[in-house]
Design a protein that fits this description.
The protein is mostly beta strands. 11% of the residues lie in helices and 32% in strands. The protein has a domain at 8-86 and 132-153. It has three helices and ten strands. It has a six-stranded mixed beta sheet with strand order 5-1-2-3-4-10. The chain has a four-stranded mixed beta sheet with strand order 8-7-6-9, with no helix packed on it. The radius of gyration is 17 Å and the shape is globular. The chain starts with 7 loop residues before the first strand and ends in a 21-residue tail after the last helix.
């Protein structure tokens, strides 16, 4: 079983699909690493080349499940893992009921970890891009990768309405 380190490029075979990640941090938040997860369709990619410009998102995920039930291989290393950090912010809320929108959000820095920044009732467009503040099991992270998830698609964010001249 490999010990992942910041900068590692990982190829993960899990439940018949393949996923590609860049590890950004050491283990944080209940055993998960913050990674950059590249969007994909589950196909294996020969000679995968990472780039912070390739579509993906930051997520904190625990790699224990694919290590036990799948395959995790280190296929390379990037010089600066921080290039893959989309925003140095995490966002969290207490709303978890389907169909409901959060009335309050808490923002934290990623580095230094878990430093509180502010509380807001509505996220700015930039704050919507902040990583979700949660440790996600890899099976759920894999679903998000295939679905091309990004943090601004968080289901608890109140969507802005267009206020044009003809509305």
């Amino acid at each position: 079983m490999i010990q992942q380190r910041p900068g590692d490029i990982l190829e993960i075979g899990f439940e018949g699909k393949w996923y590609y990640l860049v590890v950004i941090t050491k283990i944080v938040m209940f055993g998960g690493n913050i990674v950059y997860a590249f969007h994909g369709d589950g196909s294996r990619i020969e000679h995968f080349e990472p780039s912070p410009k390739k579509a993906g998102f930051n997520i904190c995920t625990d790699l224990l499940l694919p290590k036990k039930e799948g395959e995790v291989r280190r296929i390379g290393k990037v010089e600066d893992a921080n290039e893959y950090l989309v925003l140095n912010l995490m966002k969290g809320c207490h709303e978890h009921r389907p169909g409901r929108k959060a009335r309050e959000w808490w923002l934290y820095t990623i580095d230094p970890p878990q430093e509180f920044v502010k509380r807001v009732s509505r996220l700015s467009r930039t704050e919507e891009l902040a990583m979700d503040r949660a440790m996600t099991s890899f099976d759920l992270a894999a679903q998000k990768i295939i679905a091309r998830y990004s943090p601004e698609k968080n289901p608890f964010i109140e969507r802005r309405r267009f206020l044009g001249l003809f509305s």
